[in-house]
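Quiz preparation item.
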């Protein structure tokens, strides 16, 4: 599995022959790319409906959209997904097949209003656990699993459900503070998840979320976690092994 960070919370994930793009938003200082520079994904995954997570979703309307039913409906109307493949509405706790990937939707503690003229709701905010094998009660040491936490605060579900039962090998956690976790709480999340690799995300895009990733590294070390903190440059890729 290969993951590529395009800044903020935008990730391109390759699982076998399947390409997934999570939260496409290219108006951030970490990327030099435009949406047109991105290879067309098979699936677009949206964690929630805030503009800094769906701004460029419409540029990929030939893909299958994966999000809450409310957000799928909004994006079909707004961006024309229904004119092509359409959307795959799902909800918290569900797992769907996305080509060579299995995508599980998990909780995120955040807000999820779409700030338009009508202030519509996009349902519950979410995170995604992407794996190359179907989650089961039996641990599979050969599987590779990536957790995109979306925009969230620290929540006990990371320790009680996501970590022990979905078993991510790597996690991308927001650490910009102000709107999400800051470095301290993000580090606790990494420890609770018991991952091998931790990526910081959702920072340095706007003044309120400017952070030094070295603080995150220090906080992770302070928890006693063995996770390897990997601070990617924008548009940089990382190969994950189970």
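Solution:
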């Amino acid at each position: 599995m290969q993951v590529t960070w395009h800044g903020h919370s935008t990730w391109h994930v390759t699982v076998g022959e399947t390409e997934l793009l999570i939260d496409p938003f290219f108006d951030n200082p970490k990327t030099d790319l435009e949406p047109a520079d991105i290879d067309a994904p098979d699936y677009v995954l949206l964690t929630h409906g805030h503009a800094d997570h769906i701004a460029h979703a419409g540029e990929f309307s030939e893909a299958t959209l994966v999000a809450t039913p409310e957000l799928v409906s909004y994006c079909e109307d707004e961006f024309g997904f229904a004119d092509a493949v359409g959307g795959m509405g799902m909800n918290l706790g569900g797992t769907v097949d996305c080509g060579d990937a299995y995508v599980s939707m998990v909780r995120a503690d955040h807000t999820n209003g779409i700030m338009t003229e009508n202030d519509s709701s996009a349902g519950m905010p979410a995170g995604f656990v992407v794996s190359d094998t179907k989650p089961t009660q039996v641990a599979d040491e050969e599987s590779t699993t990536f957790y995109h936490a979306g925009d969230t605060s620290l929540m006990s579900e990371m320790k009680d459900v996501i970590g022990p039962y979905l078993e991510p090998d790597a996690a991308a956690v927001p650490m910009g503070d102000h709107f999400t976790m800051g470095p301290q709480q993000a580090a606790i999340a990494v420890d609770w998840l018991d991952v091998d690799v931790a990526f910081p995300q959702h920072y340095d895009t706007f003044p309120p979320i400017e952070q030094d990733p070295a603080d995150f590294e220090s906080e992770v070390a302070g928890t006693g976690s063995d996770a390897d903190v990997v601070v990617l440059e924008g548009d940089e890729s990382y190969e994950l092994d189970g």
